[in-house]
Amino acid sequence: MGMVERITKNHFSVLVFSGDIDQDCVKSLAMIFDAILEDEKDKLIILDFKKVEYISPNIYNEIFRLFSSAQERKILIYTINAKPKLVRELKSDFVDQKFNFTDSITSKLEELNLKKKRIVLLCFLTKSEFLNE
Q1: Quick one: how far is CA 117 from the chain centroid?
Q2: What is the pairing mode between strands 44-48 and 12-17?
Q3: What residues have CB less than 8 Å from 14, skipping those under 6 apart?
Q4: Stated pTM of the model
Q5: What is the pLDDT of residues 30-65, one digit of tens each?
Q6: Which residues contact 67 (CB under 8 A, 6 or more apart)?
Q7: How far apart are CA 42 and CA 84, in angstroms?
Q8: Helix/strand/coil (H, E, C) string of 8-33?
Q9: Are 60 and 95 in contact, with CB atoms under 8 Å apart?
């Protein structure tokens, strides 16, 4: 039985799955999606499949209904860290495109202006300030 945890960032959420996606996991996922839609703050949902080995085909429709409700509100969904075996299985079921796999989420965050920019502060000190004179 898989679990899903929501990590909230500024205007996006990362949903980390801790195992296979089954009926119980989809129930948790539905509650998280409801919370995201209710907040109306997120512009992006990232699904982290690092620990997912299998997704039950019996629950595809339930997952895709959740995706549709988010996409109706202009929330993008991307999937990262999927194992090649899982991607092959989803391709053979003709549902891989629904998960919107990406190798790097950084460019997606930049496109939406959600990536934090690094600020470099330069400090100029005189010799006497540096030496505390």
Answers
A1: 19
A2: parallel
A3: 6, 7, 46, 48
A4: 0.78
A5: 999 999 988 888 888 999 999 999 999 999 999 999
A6: 77, 98
A7: 28
A8: EECCEEEEEECCCECHHHHHHHHHHH
A9: yes
